[in-house]
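cron nightly-structures :: item 1 of 1
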Amino acid sequence: MSDKFHEELKLLRREFTDYSKFAADMLKDAMRALQDADSNLAADVNARKRRLSDLSDHFDERLLTLIALYQPMAHDLRTIVCTLKMNVGFYRIGRYGKDVAILVPDFASGHLGRMLNLPHMAEMVFSMIDDVIAAYESGDVARLDDFSTRDDCVDDMRYSAFREGVTYMMEDPRNINRCMDYVMVARYLERCGDHCCTMAERIHYMVTGERVEIS
């Protein structure tokens, strides 16, 4: 394979890593806006959705162009296919950030207790996102070894948030709207964890050529 191809692929991976961090920051900033009831930050996250969509389309086109022009094989082809799949995952994570951001005005009057432990759940998901990005960037798949355990923890926290939310709603019907929003955010975070597991599987295959299942 030509040096020009490898230079293009190397540059694309660097730029894709920046895009991944951009999408991750949408989710992180949205959760910060939710905790602080910061409508300005939420509006800023919502405004980034156009940039997110443009970048996703941009990387799809560049990756498919590389395949068409150079017809890569083995590790190079796995890298391109992995990046295509990760593009889907990070686009969805950024969109979930937007979905959380549009709920922020509902909490102008404050939060219930510990927000059903959503901040802790978010930190767990953020750590998975950060490790996915780092593993893609460095090829260090050891960062992904405990993803099944971490995903189980995220799933447990989602169900715990649901049960606690139902308790709040039964205690006082005025809590229903806010608790429904909390349960929705827990669902978004759980889905982000699932996207991380799927991306971790792809990265493992990209690096080692062996398929693993993270459930």
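cron nightly-structures :: done
The domain at 3-208 is CATH 1.20.58.220 (Methane Monooxygenase Hydroxylase; Chain G, domain 1).
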